[in-house]
Amino acid sequence: MSNHSFQWLQAELTRIITAQPAGSRLPSEPALAKQLKVSRATLREAMRSFETQGLIRRKQGLGTFVIGAVPLIDSGLEILESIEILAGRIGLKVTFGSLTIQQEKADEALAKIMNLPSGSEVMRVSRVIQTDERPVAYLVDILPREVLSEQELQSGFTGSVLDLLLRKGTAPLASSRTEIKATGASPELAHLLEVQRGDVLLQFVANLITNQGKVIDHSLSYFLPGYFSFHVNRRVG
Amino acid sequence: MSNHSFQWLQAELTRIITAQPAGSRLPSEPALAKQLKVSRATLREAMRSFETQGLIRRKQGLGTFVIGAVPLIDSGLEILESIEILAGRIGLKVTFGSLTIQQEKADEALAKIMNLPSGSEVMRVSRVIQTDERPVAYLVDILPREVLSEQELQSGFTGSVLDLLLRKGTAPLASSRTEIKATGASPELAHLLEVQRGDVLLQFVANLITNQGKVIDHSLSYFLPGYFSFHVNRRVG
DNA sequence: CAGTGGTCTAGACCACACG
DNA sequence: GTGTGGTCTAGACCACTGA
């Protein structure tokens, strides 16, 4: 026994994980490493992909837990809707936390994107989107101070800048030019989303545009794979 | 000096990398690790993100090299076009390699997607897309044997199943339902794309549909971040 | 406090490219 | 053979949780 290849290790872990009922705790990392005759480092490396797929969840100080089926937040990319609305459509409640609102000066790149005078004051709104179970996304919006004041953010903010702008209704929104990337979690992001540093995230970089063609919101969104499903219908060119 | 945090390490590496001209070789990993007073494991972990961003390239047996600006293969997701065509648009030549064509029986999930009798014969076409410099994508297409025979694949195949189907012209293609994911490279994928195991990849899972609504191609595509830029225009819902 | 996952270290060996 | 990156090991310490 013990074909000591990485693939064998992952297959063995799959067997172990799927044999457990949802919610149960796996043996500790040192115990599993000993049982599978690999070092703890190798074990942890092999488990990364299972966490990415949403099959397990690690909690520092507590242990590693098997996750059951997770409600997938599904969205077509043709339409821009807030995560709150997408989640509500499948009967899932989401909350937001770790909210920070800062005023800062736009750097050159941002000023160019938004067609602002260099050094303009902008608002940066950051927050984590959470389900009952865990944080699943991290969102950052950057807007000119004129578009959204600190007061407005402190009174009616539900976690979605888009919904807030739509409710406010002053700027007629047309579309969002969204760039799609894959990225690894930075140390800060990893901490906020409760994943490991370097774990795989899906990232959107978007500019929200009014029907006059003005960019009034630049946003960064980071999504945990395994909790979201984004799709698009592509015409054959 | 030597604030030994991971962030400090990455900042220091950024300084070192950007100070080098494109194409030059960095000091070896043991040398860099000693110089920065960290273990080789930590050094390598910190360098992962630089490779993901396309700033460096590691070559086993040779060294780690600084990469200059890379031609970005840019595409809107509304239209489905082959990578060859996208690359040609920016004046970039791509080739394909590691081609494998196998006949196999469709498993249950695939049979359901393509509405085939369970156990039908399908063709699986896999290949790596390469620029001058390096492999940048891995593509897998799965089609019913009736749609594309082995002969057709061996004669006129240029790397794009889409272009082949369009040239053949028998099936009027309508659209592709594409799911967008972020994933970590499996050991096989890492080897084929010459990246590290677990490195971040952008993944498309797509079903190509005729105007009769029949799925005639199921495909998996894996892209190296830093070489592609995908975007979409989203209407406000 | 003890036990968990998160990080880091020093060292070893393997796979690969070049001379 | 020599030197490179790729992998794995054994062990240590930190950060966090709950008793």
Describe the structure.
The structure is a homodimer of 237-residue chains. With 237 residues, the first copy, chain A, is of the alpha+beta class. The first copy, chain A, folds into 2 domains: 3-66, Arc Repressor Mutant, subunit A (Orthogonal Bundle), CATH 1.10.10.10; 73-231, Chorismate lyase (3-Layer(aba) Sandwich), CATH 3.40.1410.10. Helices cover 30% and strands 36% of the residues of chain A. Chain A has 8 helices and 11 strands. Chain A has helices spanning 6-18, 29-36, 40-52, 83-89, 108-114, 150-156, 161-168, 187-193; strands at 56-59, 63-66, 73-76, 79-80, 95-105, 121-130, 135-144, 173-184, 200-210, 215-223, 228-236. In chain A, β6 (121-130) and β7 (135-144) form a beta hairpin. The longest helix of chain A is centred in the first third of the chain and has 13 residues, at 6-18. At the A-B interface, α3, β4, β8, β9 and β11 of A face α3, β4, β8, β9 and β11 of B. β8 (173-184) of chain A pairs antiparallel with β11 (228-236) of chain B. Chain A binds a DNA duplex (19 and 19 nucleotides) through α3.
Radius of gyration of chain A: 21 Å
The termini of chain A sit apart by 52 Å
Class from secondary-structure proportions of chain A: alpha+beta
Number of helical segments of chain A? 8
> What is the residue-mean pLDDT of chain A, rounded to a whole number?
92
Strand order of the largest sheet of chain A: 5-6-7-10-9-8
Oligomer: homodimer
Helix fraction of chain A? 25-40%
CATH homologous superfamily grouping of the largest domain in chain A? Chorismate lyase-like
- At CATH's second level, what is the architecture of the largest domain in chain A? 3-Layer(aba) Sandwich
For the largest beta-sheet of chain A, the strand count, sense and barrel status come to:
6 strands, antiparallel
